[in-house]
Amino acid sequence: MAVWPFGRKKKDNEDTEQQLNDVAHAASPAEEAASATPGSEPNPPSHGDDLVASLPHDAVNGDSGPFDGDQVDIEDFDFSDYSIGTLNLGSMRIPMPSGLQVQVELGPSGPKMIHLVNEHCRITPLVFAAPASGGQWESASADILAGMKRDGVSDAVYEAGPWGREILGTVGANTVRVIGVDGPRWMLRFMVVSPAASQDAARDTAHALASHTFVYRGTQPMLAGNSLPVAVPQQLVNQVNKAISQHAKQQAAQRAAQQTTRMEHDEQSIAEAAEALRSLRDDQPAAHPKTDSYDNTEGSTRE
């Protein structure tokens, strides 16, 4: 899948249209790198080739994302033909297309992870601090692939994508794809999970989403490999708190209903036992009083 460049609001409309025309039939960077000779037809994406490498990505002056939000202003771009709004996660800003919903995974202390979900897949975006020299995805992907194989995902392989190396594997009936892109002192990673039948649609959704994403690394020192904090928008926090409250009320109501049911059952059992005792007494023969027997002949008084 080719990743289309984006026109900025400040550019002339003619320049934007010409730019789109120029790339309408252009191959993706991975397809161009896979071509055997200049002018030949691009090879299909590579499966299982350990030599699939990450491709250099310009997150500042490039025509498509992911972009470095600290150096590139998201307001310079018009994504109205793609998104219906922008999800602000602090370390990431992600223009959201129609049909993509936000799910918050809760941990013991509150929101733990953000998932982006549509009918085809679930995408989990994360950003990690990286060295200024770059190349973190190259080593991280090797570790991820080895870990997947160690965990039983025997068919996990590298696959060439728009930014070079991706990881693809099967877990049960689902396909897992891991996309990584190196930027200035950061690495963006998308974990994509989908039914096997939807893996192509899931791949395209994730590629488009990553190419529109802006990363905000900041200037604070961080160890390479540490994940950047994800800030859950207040609206989502309110929704999560409301959901937690509703869930607690439902559980309380369920417990009360179960307790009422048990009490009603106990009362019914007591009533049935009492009725059984009454029936037992009614079925027993009546006891007759004992009287003395007299011989009327011998015991009578003679006159």
TrEMBL record:
Give the start-end ranges of region Disordered: 1-72, 257-303
Biased composition range(s): Low complexity: 24-40
Pfam families, alphabetized: DUF3710
Biased composition, Polar residues: where in the chain? 294-303
Basic and acidic residues bias spans? 278-293
In which domain of life is the source organism classified? Bacteria
- This chain belongs to the protein called Putative DUF3710 family protein
Q: What is the originating organism of this protein?
A: Corynebacterium uterequi
